[in-house]
Amino acid sequence: MLLRRAQVEPYPNPTLIAGYTRQNQNISSDYDLGVSLPIPLWNRNQGNIQSARAMVGEATQQIGMAQNDLTGRLGVAFRNFASARRLAERYKTAILPRAKEAFDLSTKAYQGGQFEYLRVLTAERMLAQAYLEYVNALKNAWQAASVISGLALEDDWPPKPAAPVPPALPAPGER
Question: Of 2, 100, 145, 150, which is most buried by a Cβ count within 10 Å?
């Protein structure tokens, strides 16, 4: 807009000069009034045109920098989301079932008199720790999803749930 205006208005602005001078030698007061109107024979407002072009170039560079920054931040958020999803899926499909199986086996072995109760408690602690890590991975996935949603200005991202709810912990009486 400024570039177009500078190109359309090739005439620079006039300058108005006003002043007052008091001379003590001959005791006189002088008033000055002047108007300066540059005649654009060679200039043709080139300074303002170049300034407007520079402003357009700077604005274009700022757009590119903002796009690069947004792309970088989205890339980091997508990597965080994908890694947290993979970790949550690994806990759900491999680690949690094995920890549950170890807890069940140690409980049966304790009931059969083969293990002391300390091994059952250790297996239960490992199962609870696995659930906590699974929930932490889900939390990280949803945090990354919220960052992506904010950066992409999307209300519903991701459109599907990030991961299913983990199976319930065994009740204290089911040992």
Answer: 145
What global pTM score does this model have? Answer: 0.59
Question: What SS3 class is residue 65?
Answer: helix
For residues 84 and 141, the answer to whether their CB atoms sit within 8 Å is yes
Residue 112 lies inside a defined structural domain of this protein: yes
Any domain includes 107: yes
Burial class (CB in 10 A: 0-12, 13-18, 19+), 141: buried
Residue 154 confidence (pLDDT): 80
Q: How confident is the model at residue 160 (pLDDT cuts 50, 70, 90)?
A: low
Integer Cα distance of 164 and 137 in angstroms: 12
d(CA 53, CA 5): 11
